[in-house]
Structure formats: C-alpha cells, structure tokens
Amino acid sequence: MGKSPSSSAEKYLLDALNRVGKNSADYSVLYVNVSKLKPKNRHPKFVKIFARMFDKLIGAVNGMFFILSNSDFVILGKNITDETVNEAVKKLRQGLSSDPVLSVDDTSGFAHVYYFPEDFPYFYEMIERMQEQEPEATDPSLLKRPVDAAEIDSVLDTLDNIDIGELVKRQSVMRIKGAGKFEVLFQEFFVAVKDLNAHIGYNIDLVENRWLFLYLTQYLDKKTISSFFAAELQNWPAQISMNLNLSSVFSKEFVNFAKNFLKKEQTVIVELQLMDALNNLPLYFEAKKILKSGGHKILIDSMTPAALKMLNIKQLEPDYVKIFWEPLIESDNTDQELRKIIEDIGAQNVILAKCDSEKALRWGLSHGISAFQGPVIDNIETAFIKNNCPDSAKCSVKDCLKRKKLLSGYYRNQCTQKNCLETIMQSKKEL
Questions:
Q1: Per the count of CB atoms within 10 A, which of 209, 315, 394, 421 is most buried?
Q2: What pLDDT is stored for residue 59 in this prediction?
Q3: What is the pTM of this model?
Q4: Cα 36–39–41 angle (5° rounding)?
Q5: Peptide linkage before 305 cis (omega within 30 of 0)
C-alpha cells in the first residue's frame, strides 16, 4: 500500500493496472475529481491535506493511492463499493462544504467507482491518454525514490543502531511579555526527517509512501520517548512538547514517560497533525481526555492560514494551534477573516512558527499573537546565552546555536559551559 510520486503517478498507476489486469475480478477504482474543485481549493498544499483524509479508507480496501498530475485521486483496491463514493465526498465536505462541486446532492461527477473487469479497458485507456499529455519526465536517477515495503525492516534495523538521542533536537517557543522581554513558554523536542534521511540514505524518500512513513514514525516515536531517559540535558523546561502520532499517546513508552520521567510540576504538550486527528476523531477525543486528566495538553501542528479558513479547527478544542509563517501572509486579501479565526481560537493559544524575521513577529503581534518559534527566536535565545556565558569568546554564534539545540553527543560536549546552554529564559530582557 502506498502513494506514488505525483511526477510520474500515471506511469505507476499503469504499472499497477498491468499487474492486476490479468485477474482483475474484485478490483475496482475510486476516482476523485479533485481537478473539478475551485482553483483556490486545489492548491498543492491542500491536495496533500485532502490526500491524508483517505488513509483509513485506503487501509480498509487494502488499496494503492495515487495523486495524478492534474491533482485527481485514484484508489485502486478490492471490494470498493458505491458507498465509498459517499465516504469520499463526506471527507472532502469536512473542509470544502462551500465548493459548488460538493454542495449539490448528485456528486457522481466528482467521485466515481470503476468496476473491473467491465470498466478496465476504458479506465486503462483514460490513464494512458493522461500520461501522453504529461511533460517529459525528469531523469529518475536525479530523484529520490520512495522507500519500498521490502526495505522497511532494513530501515528499522538502521534505526536500532542509531543513537536517537543524538538526533533529537529542541527548539523553544517564546512568549513576548512586553518591550524586549521574552519568556520560554515550552520547548519542542523532535527528530528532523532530513537528519534521519542522512543516516538511512540520501536517495530514499521516507515521506512519500504515506503508509510506510506512518509505520516508521510510530516506531520512531517510541525510540524518541525512550531516549529522554538517557539524555544529558539536566535543566528540563516546565512544559515539554513532542511531535507524536495519535496512537503513540496510548503506547507503553509514553505512559512510562509520563509516569516515571516527568516531575510533578511538568506538563507534556502533544503536537499532532490535523489529519491524524480528523481521521480518527473518537481516538483523538479519547487521547485528549487522557492527557487532560494528567494535566497535559494537545497542540494542532503545521497549520497554514488557508487551511484554518477551510477547516473548522475549533471543533477539536485544542489547547494550542501552531500556524506556519509565510511571507505571502502579509498580502492576504482576506486578512479580516483570519483575524476573526485567531480571535475565536484565542490569540493566547496561537503560536506563529517558522518565524525567520522581525517582520513575522510584527505581523503576529498585530494579530494578537504573542507566542513565537523559529530562527529569529533561536537567535534571540542564543544571544542571551552568549551574553551570560563566561567562555563566550571560545565559540561562534553558529556553534552556540547548534549546541543549544542538541540533547547529547560529541558536538554538544565541546561546550565548556553546558549549564549556560540549558538556561531557560524566564521574563529576561533581551539586549
């Protein structure tokens, strides 16, 4: 089960059809005409969000998922029924109820099932025509390839031989308390995919195959949580956030972490992807209830202003929402709508992440946001650390910044004042 790379999806789909063509009985295809949506609703970022809504359905039909070059979805699997059409439309309506294609009762033109073997010749020829219309493909040798199911055991073996603790990084989320005053709200602990890729192989794309990446990250969650017990960090923040899969909240590793690692006054903030929650709302609310009973919190991660306008995130009642800063936000002609959404969520519960300039901070503050994360915040924190470090002259700002993010390992150990690296700003004034 997997998602083919969109640059050659028609080719991969034809390959799959060739494999099932000799015995296509019981196979069928759900075709979703995403290309019929309004242009603003089929932006590549939204297409990826919509694609994740179908994860559960793909698993139920043991299917293969393809995003074609025109953004249409194809699910090839067994025992796909007409009810699947209703399921597809229902999922897209969750975020796009205002789109004309989804607002009419008869949506057969938007989502359609092709039954094999009777519909096989017509569907095959249709995909062939689409492939002929594609521009010439890029040299495959220059592209990363999706990790294959047959390789996943090898990838996990590699993970077992890696000291994950040396890959875990931390990054502060700071709240601006006033003129020039900053305070750490919490610190996020994460493993960057690019760092993982560097250990596993540069020509392998761990993310493209959604199902295998989900399996991999569930395994990685457990390794990351367990690494905290051996981390060299001494001064842990009062609030710790982690990027986790929803299912990992119920793992024995997380339960053990919450019970035996955290101090009584410490809180965990679980950062979840929106689609992880929407794909299993009952599990989400169960996880939320469990976390709240332990004094912990939930954050919905990786939101964009456009996604906030499309999806009613307030129904999930998260403790925090993290919006990713984009320079184009400033030129958004629907700014008042975004202001209203931030106000409804509660500006104090919104974090503006990926802030790479003071311009991002000014935009956030003008919208009532006071919590920020990103390179500009890292620089403020590093300047504070170096200003208070007695051995400041021995290392560069770049060295200090890199070492501050690490939990353990050789590079961090080059610092002669690790207590300064671990300083957590509490209402301190920046120079």
A1: 209
A2: 76
A3: 0.69
A4: 85
A5: no
- Strands 371-372, 350-353: pairing kind: parallel
Q: Which two tokens stand for residue 71?
A: 């953004």
Q: Contact 102/93 with Cβ under 8 angstroms?
A: yes
One-letter amino acid at 6 equals S
**Amino acid at the residue 158:** T
Report the candidate in 224, 184, 214, 174 with the shortest Cα–Cα distance to residue 353.
174
What span, in angstroms and rounded, lies between the C-alpha atoms of 92 and 95? 6
Tokens of 160: 């077992």
Classified as helix, coil or strand, 232 is coil
Helix (H) or strand (E) holding 77: strand 73-78
CB atoms within 10 A of CB 69: 16
**What whole-number distance in Å separates Cα of residue 102 and Cα of residue 104?**
6
* pLDDT tens per residue across span 206-240: 777 777 888 889 999 999 999 999 888 889 999 99
Pair 42, 106: CB distance under 8 Å:
no
Whole-number Å distance between alpha carbons of 419 and 29: 59
